[in-house]
Amino acid sequence: MDTIFALASAQGKAGVSVIRLSGPQAIPTAAVISGGALACPGRMLRVLTDASGTRIDEALLLTFVGPNSFTGEDTVEFQVHGSTSVVSAMLDRLSSFNDVRLADPGEFTRRALENGKLDLSQVEALADLIDAETEAQRVQAQTVLAGGLAELAERWRKDLIRAASLIEVTIDFADEDVPVDVTGEVTELLSGVARDLEPQIVGVKFAERIRTGFEVAIVGAPNVGKSTLLNALAGRDAAITSEYAGTTRDVIEVRMDLGGLPVTLLDTAGLRETTDHVEGIGIELTKRRAQDADLRVFLQNDSEAIKIPVMKDDIVVLPKADLNDNDQDSLAISGKTGQGIEALVAEITMVLKERAEKAGIATRVRHREAMGIAFSRLQSAQEVLKNGTAFYDVAADDMRSAIRALEMLVGRVGVENLLDEIFSSFCLGK
After folding, report:
1. Of 314 and 416, which is predicted with more confidence?
2. Which CATH architecture has domain 135-209+362-423?
3. Rounded Cα–Cα distance for residues 53 and 32 (Å)
């Protein structure tokens, strides 16, 4: 296997930049560059030189001996000064060695997977952690990265293996008197796994929203103050505002952190009948995005009829509180003066946090599909068991299918076609 290298820290100027080197030639290569044998494992301060012996930089070297490293291989990390010229010189120096090459995107993490340091769910969580922008995203990614989903899957898998083995023993000794009826224990094991799987399957859609972000659409008639409200919430002029109706013709998105949750606010075109072709396209887009959003904030007066149904948890507020006399029992806002903004933010945050609390550990559609297959096969096995011992072989086959689905969940089997897509999202140094 080639020895690979890459810049593991961000591009550009910094106090320190980290260059990672992993593979069978990592330690010998680092020894040549740093002018002497390395403590393995260990840390040391060394002068790094190019092929002619000219000084590149003085750096801290960290050495890890496989399998006790991130990749499971011998690994060296160079902590050099964060100069673009120093980093460039070091990358050129490393590329001059035979059997040493620049890493592909995600190749360090892929080797960690191949060497059993991470399972596939942890690899996905690592990508999520790198992309995390909010506290909820960080906590979610750390839970899976620490092995939370893998531990669940392994517990379910062990219970199913136990259940399948009991059934198969009964099949193997079908011609003999087997004094113990295993149906009760098998049914209990299958029911326990199914009970655990069901809330996790439901929770994926909420967990996925934490990972990718909730969408909140601001909906209302033209010139009702939607763009002004968006700007007030964003703290900047994200959308054009004017006294003329129909100013907003496209959906404008602003990313925010509300109570640790990632939220994208959508400013939409005003809803009205129009003969303007371009405005009409914007209105149709508004309807689609509003219907697909996780939550809608309706800016409307009692007399206004907006042809988008108000769903459960949607928030209806009275607009332009600075210009109108509003019912004190209603939530009224003004994007210009800030009246009611804090209360609106609190209301949005409360609704979304209630949904986030329903999130499971599993975070992706792939996880939901694998657990769904397992759940379906368990239901089938439970029904088959009711038909008696003559159908135990069918039940055993259903259990094996459920076990295989759980193994796919953590990447033990059947995921080779996913790997290139997953690792392509990683940077070179990860």
Report:
1. 314
2. Up-down Bundle (1.20)
3. 10
Q: Are 76 and 63 in contact (CB under 8 A)?
A: yes
pLDDT number for residue 242:
39
Q: CB within 8 A of 233, min separation 6: which ones? A: 254, 256, 265, 341, 345
Give domain limits for the chain: 3-114, 135-209+362-423, 215-355
Q: Return the residue matching tokens 């010139």.
A: 223
The pair phi, psi for residue 19, each rounded to 5°, is: -115, 125
pLDDT tens profile 370-404: 999 999 999 999 999 888 878 888 999 999 999 99
Alpha helices in 75-182 (DSSP H): 84-95, 107-114, 120-131, 135-145, 148-172
Assign domain 3-114 to its CATH architecture.
2-Layer Sandwich (3.30)
Q: Does domain 215-355 have CATH number 3.40.50.720?
A: no
Distance of CA 163 to the CA centre of its chain: 33
